[in-house]
Amino acid sequence: MAQDLLSTSETAKMLGVSRVAVFKKIKTGEINARKIGRNYVISRKDLGEALGAILTAQKKRAIEQSVQKTIREYGETLKLLGKE
């Protein structure tokens, strides 16, 4: 179990950011963490999402909406570019 948990320092190294940035991501909910005593720990499985390796349903919907908007607004242009 302990091997599945990362400290904020370990998480910061893996993400290539500072510990302060990790704490900000925890506060905003970008990274799921549990508080044990005075420290936060992050599960390795939750880190995949923070790294962008896993697309959540919410992120998939946002991407789909962006694609649909692009097609609506630039559809004809995209078709013309496709013919070149």
Summarize the structure.
This protein is α+β, with helices and mostly antiparallel strands.
Tags for this model:
elongated, 84 residues, alpha+beta, 13% strand, 2 domains, three-stranded antiparallel beta sheet
Account of the protein in words:
With 84 residues, the protein is an alpha+beta fold. It folds into two domains: 1-53, Winged helix-like DNA-binding domain superfamily/Winged helix DNA-binding domain (Arc Repressor Mutant, subunit A); 55-84. It is built from four helices and three strands. The chain has helices at 8-15, 19-28, 44-50, 57-83, and strands spanning 5-7, 34-36, 39-43. It has a three-stranded antiparallel beta sheet. It is elongated.
Strand content: 5-15%
Low-confidence stretches: none
Q: Please outline the major beta sheet.
A: 3 strands, antiparallel
Radius of gyration equals: 19 Å
- How many helical stretches? 4
Q: Which secondary-structure class do the elements indicate? A: alpha+beta
Broad shape: elongated
Secondary structure: elements and pairs:
Blueprint: E1 5-7, H1 8-15, H2 19-28, E2 34-36, E3 39-43, H3 44-50, H4 57-83
Antiparallel strand pairs: 1-3, 2-3
Helix pairs in contact: 1-2
